[in-house]
């Protein structure tokens, strides 16, 4: 059964912490070592129950847990509901139910056994502590499996209460158990994401701080808990510091690098441009350090690195990474990325290089006219109108244009500049076929200018000696 909501305490960690508490290697003989109960309830199993327990051994050897549960349930009606036998049977039955992932039934069963023992003092201190820890752990596990938020919160509250009692009576909690308690407090605090309980969050942070102070070499789980508390407190700067400690201690754990990167990006939203730039640079360093470990090297990650270099005005570096990535396949080889590359070279005033890579991209995507459109724009800006016209026409022939209307308008402009008024008028007529022309105030003025030029040309031709 898998968890239904996110938790920093994984199921494997749960299993490690409560393995001793589940105790599925069940005792099959009477337990006579328990503390003495009141005179009317001896703290040992009745002879009849002890005899019936002998039937459990072959079932246990065969790992027939259902058979063991059925046998125990069959014994319950034959013993008093407040007897030591009843409490003992329920304790054993709860552990078997937990072993079958029937957490809710296990909690209800074991809680009943505990209440009987509390009333009649059946179980000694160590046994009671074992039961409390079992209940805390299984209640937490059930909280991670249910989907109803109210039910989740109820089981987390149960886990917390059992743990508090366990902590009051236990001599000394191990670091693993203390970390588990901090996890429960944290999950309680954030059980309702819209109303985070700041008091419980503070308690969780306090428990984690104690563990850090008591640990010579803190384990990964402890760092993770501290990070979770800081993130819930929206303490982004300290979260970044903690993540830096984590990636230093555990550089081969891939999941922490993207978190550190995202944290620096969050910090880069600062209105102070200097602070923003510093955090963009830290984000760049994070990606590059992660890549040195073999992580964050997907095409998306590499393109994000290009974007980060652009953010810090390192256009040359960004362009080099982009071109290298497109050639090696470490950045997605799609038309937009090649078009970005051409644009970046123009921004670097390397127009000829821009034309070269755009032609390279066009060869890869021969039916995409955007490449010729961009080349045409470079030529127009360089006042090479014939070249510009050629590429505009190629762009229209190939298609796949974002705004075909605009290309017809550009073609009309350069044809007008070349005094090819007939070609210019054809482009105008083509542009008028698009809805955009109805709201473009420039197009009618250009058309009028072309008409005037054509009229002037005709008038001039009428007066020429050849005409006479």
Question: Would you mind describing this structure in some detail?
Answer:
This protein is mainly alpha-helical and 468 residues long. Among the domains are: 1-145, Alpha Horseshoe (Serine Threonine Protein Phosphatase 5, Tetratricopeptide repeat), CATH 1.25.40.10; 403-468. The protein is 70% helix and 0% strand. The chain has 23 helices and no strands. The protein has helices at residues 11-22, 47-53, 56-61, 65-75, 84-99, 103-120, 125-143, 149-169, 175-189, 198-214, 220-232, 236-249, 256-267, 273-292, 299-311, 315-328, 335-347, 351-364, 370-381, 385-398, 404-417, 421-431, 442-463. The longest helix is centred in the last third of the chain and has 22 residues, at 442-463. The protein is elongated and about 135 Å long.
SSE topology sketch:
Elements: H1 11-22, H2 47-53, H3 56-61, H4 65-75, H5 84-99, H6 103-120, H7 125-143, H8 149-169, H9 175-189, H10 198-214, H11 220-232, H12 236-249, H13 256-267, H14 273-292, H15 299-311, H16 315-328, H17 335-347, H18 351-364, H19 370-381, H20 385-398, H21 404-417, H22 421-431, H23 442-463
Helix pairs in contact: 1-7, 4-5, 5-6, 6-7, 7-8, 8-9, 9-10, 9-11, 10-11, 11-12, 12-13, 13-14, 14-15, 15-16, 16-17, 17-18, 17-19, 18-19, 19-20, 20-21, 21-22, 22-23
Attribute tags:
disordered N terminus, 468 residues, elongated, 23 helices, mainly alpha
